[in-house]
Amino acid sequence: MKLLVVVSNYPHPGHPSSGAFNERSARALQELGHGVEVLAPRPYAPRSLAACHARWRAYEQIVERETRGGLAIYRPAYLQLPGAGGVLRPDWCAYLSCARRSSKRHRTDPYDAILAFNLILAGGLAWRLARRLNIPAAGWATGSDVRVPVNSAHGRAVSAALQRLDLMFYQSRELLERAAALCGVPRELFSPRRHVVLPRGVEMPPAPSPEARRSMRAELGVRADQIMVLFVGRIVKAKGAFELIEAVELARRERREIVCVLVGAHAGFDDSAELRERLRRAPELAAHVQLLPACAPEKVWQYLNAADIFAFPSHREGMPNSLLEAMAAGLPALAYAIPPVLEIDHGLDALKLVLPANVSELARGLAELAQSPELRRRLGANGQARVLSGYQTQASLAEAARRLQALAGRRRGGAFSAAAPVLSAPPRAESQ
């Protein structure tokens, strides 16, 4: 099957970790034997903005066409107003920038179907292209895309995508509930054939290496007798990064061997400057906390191999892939008990869960894990088994491709049509 994968972000020189899981999903589809091209529209970056703002400097570094890992990636520029909050519909602007080129590519080497990750930009672009090319399109709700206000420009874009895409996947049951609320219908009225809960999952980690562990800890200045707490993700308040360092400060009063490493800082894209300032004002804590830049996905496994505890104090998620990676690596993990995390744990004692946004509980959890090697061993083993049993990228993408290929087959056979409402299948009429 020839697939056009549409994404709102994908790794690029200005931000190598942006959209890392989109890239892994595209590669998994390729490894499954499908032909894959990636369409990743980029905001048009005027030189005046690029000269004065880190985010726009990163955008300016994106090239229009490239090949990564054997995958052809096309990144047309579309108009976006800085700080305008979606006044210009990004899905419509992106469609205008790439519709003609996609049609030309389709005539030369036809696509069988389209798969979009994230609904705000990619979902709207996908269903419009699908109408133009007369092929089926599926979307994957990843998290914040279905948490937008109903009456906002982004809310209208997502609602349209939910109604017009031929097939929908959701990273978690919570996202399915939110999608139904966005469409103004009870979840029970969503057709289970068209609306499918399917986490994208994560790749399996490389085998742990004691030598690599010692080397990375030496690089970080972490002694063998210290307990290294690791955080990997965007350094923003909603991910709990600030609460984590508060919890580390409290936990160290009981367990002095605790140190913390946060990986993911990227100037212009997060709150890392504010966190650095917070550490600057607390030099005693700063001596035991390291804030490191975002890194290539391959290096994340090295950090996981070096750590003793993974901390995931995020306030909301679609499906926490960084947490799944830590669990896959056999690392004991501590997390706020938010809906998708509870879905992962599923009562299987795979995670140490604490009340959301409760710094005291987070600190107690860190101290408890630091104190008990046996607890860390049990959670690490249970967590790894949980991920292996239901959160593997290859299996999830194979299931998604199977369902999408069935739609593509119906289209080729002349039986594909969809004139029903959002509850079962989308309308096929052209619309903005």
- The amount of beta strand, in percent, is 15-25%
Low-confidence stretches: 414-421, 427-432
The radius of gyration computed from the alpha-carbon positions, rounded to a whole number of angstroms, is: 22 Å
Distance between the termini: 28 Å
Broad CATH class of the largest domain = Alpha Beta
Total E-strand runs: 16
Biggest β-sheet: count, sense, barrel? 8 strands, mixed
Q: What's the number of structural domains?
A: 2
Q: Give the CATH architecture of the largest domain.
A: 3-Layer(aba) Sandwich
Count of helical stretches: 17
**CATH homologous superfamily of the largest domain, by name?**
Glycogen Phosphorylase B
Secondary-structure-derived class: alpha/beta
> Outline, from the CA principal axes?
globular
* Largest beta sheet: strand ordering: 4-5-2-1-7-8-9-10
Structural commentary:
It is a single chain. The chain is α/β, with parallel strands linked by helices and 432 residues long. It has two domains: 2-201 and 393-412, Rossmann fold; 210-390, Rossmann fold (3-Layer(aba) Sandwich). The protein is 44% helix and 16% strand. The chain has 17 helices and 16 strands. The chain has helices at 20-31, 47-50, 54-60, 90-108, 119-133, 153-164, 173-183, 210-220, 241-251, 272-280, 283-286, 297-306, 321-328, 339-345, 359-371, 373-390, 393-412, and strands spanning 2-7, 35-39, 42-43, 65-68, 71-74, 77-78, 113-117, 137-141, 167-170, 195-197, 227-232, 258-265, 289-293, 309-312, 333-336, 352-354. The strands form three sheets. Strands 4-5-2-1-7-8-9-10 form an eight-stranded mixed β-sheet, with helices on both faces. Helix 8 (210-220) packs across helix 12. It is globular. 50% of the residues are buried. Mean pLDDT is 90; it is low at 414-421 and 427-432.
